[in-house]
Specification:
The complex is a heterodimer. Chain A has two domains: 276 residues, ABC transporter involved in vitamin B12 uptake, BtuC (Orthogonal Bundle), CATH 1.10.3470; 248 residues, P-loop containing nucleotide triphosphate hydrolases (Rossmann fold), CATH 3.40.50.300. Helix content of chain A is 53%, strand content 11%. Chain A is built from 24 helices and twelve strands. Chain B is mainly α. Chain B has one domain: ABC transporter involved in vitamin B12 uptake, BtuC (Orthogonal Bundle), CATH 1.10.3470. Chain B is built from eleven helices and two strands; from the N terminus they run H-H-H-H-E-E-H-H-H-H-H-H-H. In chain B, a hairpin with a 2-residue loop joins strand 1 and strand 2. The N and C termini of chain B lie far apart (44 Å). The chains are: A alpha/beta, B mainly alpha. At the A-B interface, helix 5, helix 10 and helix 12 of A face helix 4, helix 9 and helix 11 of B.
Chain lengths: 623, 306
C-alpha cells in the first residue's frame, strides 16, 4: 500500500519568512532603548509587563476558552508576595520570586476551581468576584500595609548588573517576555494547546476524543496565573513600591480590552494589544475624561467591526481582496477513500462473534420522561449493528449514556467484560469507544489536520508535565502524530483539505472528516449517530463502503440511521427501539416484517391484525 | 451604610444581639432591594436577547446623576425627578441596544468587553458633564426613623423597599398581562419561533433594553441618598447586581429579587462582622454558593440556544 510520506503544507513547520520576521523583530526590540528617553523607557517597561499578563490571559481565555477576570489578582499575588517576603521577612529577591510564583500558581488553582463547575458568564462573575475579594484584602490587611502599600522592595541583583536602571531592566523583562511567549506558542501548537483549543470550540466533542476537560481547565488557569505572577514579581522589582491602586478592577478591564483588541485567539495579538493600549493610554493620560471617552468608543468599534481583533484585520482584507478578484478560493478536491488495512477483530483482543458491548436493563430518565426504559442489548465483536426506531425512541440517548455524557439511572454497561457505566466520556473514549454526532460537532476554529491530531493524541493530561522539563520529547511525539494524521487524511481522501477550517467545507466532506476523526482515536467500537443524514445518494454509497472497510479493519460498528435502504444493506443485525424499549431484534429481513415494528412506525391500523374492530380508533390515535 | 443607630437603652446582652441582628437585616434588605433592581435589569436584557450587559452599572450612574440633577438643581419633587431620569436612561438604553445589536447572542468574551466599552463611554460622559467629584443627595424623606421593638428603621429605607416592590409587581404584570409583555416572554423562550408567529424581535429587544435601563436609573436614583453619587458608583453596584442575578438564577425575575436581597443581607452581615473585609467575605460566600448550585436558586431562564 502506497502511503504518501511527505507532510502536507499545513503540517509543515512555519516558513522561513516568518523566522526572518522574528529575527528582525528581536533586533528592533533589542535596539529600542537607544531611541527612548527616561519617560518612554518606563512606558516600555510597563508595556512589557502588560504584554506578559496579556499572554497569560490569551492562554486561558483565547486558547482554552475559560473566562478569567482575576488576572489582575494573579499580578497582585506575585507582586505582594515578593514585596512581603523581601521587606518583612528579609528574603533575597530571587528566593522571594520563586516563592511568589508558587503562591500565584496556588492562587491559580483557587480561581480555577469554580471553572470545574461553571462556565461563561457564571465563571466571569465568579472570577471577577474573587478579584474584588483579593483587592478588598490588600486594601485592608495589616500584612499588606493597606492603602499606603509597601515600599523599599529591592531591585533584583543579577551578576553585578545594576537593575535599578530602567534601561537594563527593560532587557530583563524582554527576555522573560520572549521566553514566556515562546513557551506559550509552543504549548498552543503542540498537543496540550491543541486540546485546549478543541475544548474551547466544543467541550463535548473534545471529551469524546479522550480530552480530560477538568484537569485541562485547571492547567489553563494555572498557566495564566504563572504569567500573571511573573509580571507581578517583575513589577515589584522594577518600581520598588506597590499599593492597591495598581491592582484595580479598572486595570483588569483595561487588560481585557488589550487582549480582545489585539486578538484573543493569537498570543502575538495579545502582545500587540498590550503594547498599543499601554502607549495610547500613556499618551492620553492628561486628557483623562476625553481619553476615557475615546478609549471606550474604540473598544466598542473594534468589538463590533473586528471581532477577531487587530491581528484579524489583515485576513479580512485578504479575503475581501480575493472576493474582489472573483476567485473562488479553493481548488482542493475530495479524493477517493482508500480502504483501511484489513485486520481480523482478534487483533483488537476480542474474538469475532463474542460480546463486545453489553447493555443490560439500562434506564435513563429526564425529569418525568423515561427516555430509556430497561434496555438490554448485546453488540458482538466484528459486526455492524443497526439501531432504528421512530423519532424520540431513545436512540441518541442510548449513545449518550454509552459514551458517558449521561449517567444511567439504572442498569449496567460492560465493554469487553469491564463495567463502564458512569464513567466520564474521556475514560470511555480511552477504553476504545469512538463516536460521531447527529449534528456535526467538529472543532470549528481548528484546521482539518488539527481536528485529526486532537483525536490521535491518546495521552493522559498528566503527560503534560513534560512541558516543564522535556520539550524535545513533546516535539518528537508531535511529529509522529502529524505523520499519522497525514496518512489518515490521505486514506480518507481529505489530504487536500488539511489546512482548511471545517466550516468552509461542503457538508458531505465535513461528515467524512468527523468519521475520520473518530477513527483517528483507534477505537474498538465505533458509534455512528445518523451518519447519512444530509448526504446525497453517491455520498451514501461511499459511506457504506467506508463503514464496511472500517469494520474489516477490526472495528465493531453500531449505527443509528433513519435511511432504511442503508440500514438494510449495511447492517448484519438490527435492534428496533420504541419509547425507550427494545421492541425487536434480529436479521434485517426478520425485523422488517415484525408486526411490532410495523406498528411502531406506521401505527396499528397498518398492521394486519385479528383485532380489526379496533382499527378505526387506532388510526385516529396514530394521526 | 446606615449603621449609626444609637441603641441607647438596652436591657440585656441577648436583646442587644437580637436588635443588632434586625438592625443589620433592615440595612441589608434596603441595599438588597437596590441590588434586586439592578439584577432585574441584567436578567431582563439577558433573557430576551442573550446579552450580558456590563454597561448596566454605568447606566445606573447616569440615572443617579440625572435624578439628582432634576431633584437638587431643577428642584423637582423626588417623585417627579426619578421617573424623568428613568425616561432619560431608557432613551440611552435604546441607543446602546442599537450600537451593540451585532453582539447579541455572540460569545461571552465579546459581549463582555463590548458592553464594558459602552460603560466606559457613559462613565466618561458622566465625568465630562458632572465632573469627577461626587455629590451628596439629601434624603427626600425627612421623617424620624420608625422604632420597631428597639430596631430603628429609617423612613427612607422603607420607601426604597416599597418602591422596589411596586416596580417588581408592575414589571411582572406587564410581562404577564399585556400583549407586548407576552410577546417579550415569547422572544425570551424562542426567538425564532417568535419571529415565525409575527413578533417583531428587534422591537421587543429594544423595549426590554429600555426597561432594563430605566430600572438601572430607578436603582441609581434610590441609592443616591443612601450612598454618594459619583462617576464610579455604578462599578461596584453593577458587580453586586450581576452577582445577585446569578445567585438567584440568571434570567429569572423572582431569582433577581431573591438574589438581590441575598447579596444585600450577606453584605450587611459581612460588613458588621468583618468590617473592611465585607467584599472579601461576600464574594467568597458567593463563589461557594455558585459552585454548590451553578444554575442559581431559580435556575437559568435563558434564551434557547441549541
Amino acid at each position: 500500500m502506497s502511503r504518501s510520506p511527505s507532510l502536507p503544507a499545513a503540517l509543515r513547520a512555519p516558513q522561513a519568512a516568518r523566522a526572518g520576521g522574528l529575527v528582525l523583530l528581536a533586533v528592533a526590540a533589542w535596539l529600542l532603548p537607544y531611541q527612548l528617553n527616561v519617560y518612554w523607557i518606563s512606558v516600555a517597561d510597563i508595556a512589557i509587563l502588560f504584554a506578559l499578563l496579556a499572554v497569560g490571559m490569551g492562554l486561558v481565555m483565547g486558547v482554552a476558552g475559560q473566562v478569567n477576570l482575576a488576572q489582575i489578582a494573579f499580578f497582585g499575588v506575585g507582586a505582594y508576595t515578593t514585596a512581603i517576603l523581601t521587606t518583612r521577612d528579609g528574603y533575597g529577591f530571587w528566593t522571594a520570586a520563586v516563592l511568589a510564583m508558587i503562591a500565584t500558581a496556588l492562587a491559580g488553582v483557587v480561581v480555577g476551581t469554580p471553572a470545574l463547575r461553571v462556565q461563561s458568564h457564571y465563571l466571569g462573575i465568579v472570577t471577577l468576584g474573587l478579584a474584588v475579594a483579593f483587592i478588598d484584602w490588600i486594601t485592608n490587611a495589616p500584612v499588606t500595609n493597606g492603602d499606603s502599600g509597601i515600599s523599599g522592595i529591592p531591585a533584583p541583583p543579577l551578576l553585578g548588573i545594576n537593575l535599578s536602571s530602567q534601561y537594563l531592566y527593560y532587557y530583563l523583562e524582554l527576555i522573560v517576555l520572549a521566553g514566556g511567549l515562546a513557551f506559550g506558542l509552543f504549548i498552543v501548537h503542540t498537543p496540550l494547546g491543541r486540546r485546549m483549543r478543541a475544548m474551547r470550540d466544543d467541550p463535548l466533542a473534545a471529551s469524546a476524543a479522550a480530552t480530560e476537560i477538568r484537569p485541562l481547565r485547571m492547567i489553563a488557569f494555572v498557566l495564566a496565573s504563572v504569567y500573571g505572577g511573573a509580571a507581578g514579581v517583575l513589577y515589584a522589582g522594577m518600581i520598588g513600591y506597590i499599593a492597591p491602586e495598581t491592582f484595580s478592577i479598572a486595570d483588569m478591564f483595561l487588560l481585557l480590552a488589550m487582549v480582545i483588541i489585539g486578538g484573543r485567539r493569537s498570543l502575538a495579538g495579545c502582545v500587540i494589544g498590550a503594547v498599543v493600549l499601554t502607549v495610547v493610554q500613556q499618551q492620553l493620560i492628561n486628557l483623562a475624561a476625553y481619553a476615557q471617552l475615546g478609549y471606550g468608543l474604540v473598544v466598542v468599534a473594534v468589538v463590533v467591526f473586528a471581532p477577531a481583533g487587530l491581528v484579524g484585520i489583515p485576513g479580512r482584507f485578504r479575503s475581501l481582496y480575493r472576493r474582489w478578484r472573483g476567485s473562488t478560493g479553493t481548488s482542493a478536491v475530495l479524493e477517493p477513500f482508500r480502504p483501511l488495512p484489513v485486520a481480523p477483530a482478534a487483533a483488537a483482543g476480542v474474538t469475532p462473534g463474542e460480546p463486545l458491548l453489553e447493555v443490560s436493563h439500562l434506564v435513563r430518565r429526564f425529569r418525568g420522561v423515561t427516555a430509556l426504559d430497561d434496555i438490554s442489548l448485546t453488540v458482538r465483536a466484528g459486526e455492524i449493528l443497526g439501531i432504528v426506531g421512530p423519532n424520540g425512541s431513545g436512540k441518541t440517548t442510548l449513545f449518550n449514556v454509552i459514551s458517558g455524557f449521561y449517567r444511567p439511572h439504572g442498569g449496567a454497561i460492560t465493554l469487553n467484560g469491564r463495567p463502564v457505566s458512569g464513567m466520564r466520556p474521556s475514560q470511555v473514549s480511552r477504553l476504545g469507544v469512538a463516536r460521531t454526532f447527529q449534528h456535526l460537532r467538529l472543532f470549528g476554529n481548528l484546521t482539518v489536520a488539527d481536528n485529526m491530531l486532537v483525536s490521535l493524541d491518546r495521552t493522559r493530561t498528566w503527560w503534560s508535565w513534560r512541558y516543564l522539563c522535556w520539550p524535545f520529547g513533546i516535539w518528537r511525539y508531535d511529529r509522529a502524530l502529524k505523520r499519522r494524521a497525514a496518512e489518515l487524511l490521505a486514506d480518507f481522501g481529505l489530504a487536500q483539505f488539511a489546512g482548511m477550517l471545517p466550516g468552509t467545507l461542503p457538508y458531505g466532506i465535513q461528515r467524512r472528516l468527523e468519521l475520520a476523526r473518530a477513527i483517528a482515536g483507534a477505537p474498538r467500537l465505533l458509534l455512528l449517530d445518523e451518519p447519512a443524514a444530509g448526504l446525497n445518494g453517491e455520498e451514501r454509497a461511499q459511506l457504506a463502503m467506508i463503514v464496511r472497510s472500517i469494520r474489516d479493519s477490526g472495528v465493531t460498528v453500531v449505527l443509528i440511521e433513519h435511511n432504511m435502504g442503508l440500514v438494510m444493506s449495511l447492517c448484519e443485525r438490527i435492534v428496533v427501539l420504541d419509547s425507550g424499549l427494545v421492541i425487536a431484534e434480529g436479521l434485517p429481513a426478520q425485523v422488517s416484517s415484525d408486526p411490532a415494528v410495523l406498528e411502531a412506525y406506521l401505527g396499528k391500523s397498518a398492521v394486519p391484525s385479528p383485532r380489526a374492530s379496533e382499527a378505526p380508533q387506532a388510526s385516529e390515535a396514530s394521526q | 451604610m446606615e449603621r449609626s443607630s444609637p441603641l441607647a437603652s438596652l436591657p440585656s446582652g441577648d436583646d442587644e444581639a437580637v436588635q443588632s441582628f434586625f438592625q443589620t437585616l433592615v440595612s441589608g434588605l434596603s441595599f438588597g432591594a437596590v441590588y434586586a433592581l439592578v439584577a432585574l435589569g441584567f436578567s431582563l436584557v439577558y433573557r430576551t436577547m442573550g446579552l450580558v450587559n456590563f454597561a448596566h452599572g454605568a447606566v445606573l450612574t447616569i440615572g443617579a446623576y440625572v435624578a439628582s440633577t432634576f431633584y437638587l438643581s431643577a428642584r423637582l419633587p423626588f417623585a417627579v425627578a426619578v421617573p424623568a431620569a428613568m425616561a432619560v436612561t431608557a432613551a440611552i438604553g435604546l441607543v446602546i441596544e442599537r450600537v451593540l445589536r451585532p453582539l447579541e447572542n455572540k460569545d461571552f468574551d465579546l459581549m463582555l468587553i463590548g458592553t464594558i466599552g459602552a460603560g466606559t463611554v457613559l462613565e466618561a460622559a458622566a465625568i465630562l458633564i458632572w465632573s469627577s467629584s461626587g455629590r451628596g443627595v439629601s434624603s427626600p424623606v425627612q421623617t424620624t426613623p420608625f422604632d420597631v421593638g428597639g430596631v430603628r428603621i429609617p423612613a427612607y429605607n422603607v420607601v426604597v423597599i416599597a418602591v422596589t416592590a411596586v416596580a417588581m409587581a408592575a414589571l411582572t404584570l406587564f410581562l404577564q398581562r399585556t400583549k407586548r409583555g407576552a410577546a417579550m416572554q415569547a422572544v425570551a423562550m424562542d426567538h425564532e419561533a417568535a419571529t415565525a408567529v409575527g413578533i417583531h424581535v428587534g422591537r421587543s429587544n429594544a423595549i426590554s433594553f429600555a426597561i432594563g435601563a430605566a430600572l438601572a436609573a430607578l436603582a441609581g436614583a434610590l441609592v443616591g441618598p443612601m450612598l454618594y453619587v459619583s462617576p464610579t458608583m455604578g462599578d461596584s453596584l453593577g458587580i453586586d447586581g450581576f452577582a445577585a442575578a446569578i445567585l438567584g438564577g440568571f434570567g429569572s425575575i423572582p431569582g433577581a429579587i431573591v438574589g438581590g436581597l441575598g447579596i444585600g443581607v450577606i453584605g450587611a452581615f459581612a460588613a458588621q462582622s468583618f468590617q473592611g473585609y465585607s467584599d472579601l467575605v461576600t464574594f467568597v460566600v458567593f463563589t461557594v454558593l455558585v459552585m454548590i448550585r451553578p444554575t442559581g436558586i431559580f435556575g437559568e431562564r435563558t434564551v434557547n440556544r441549541a
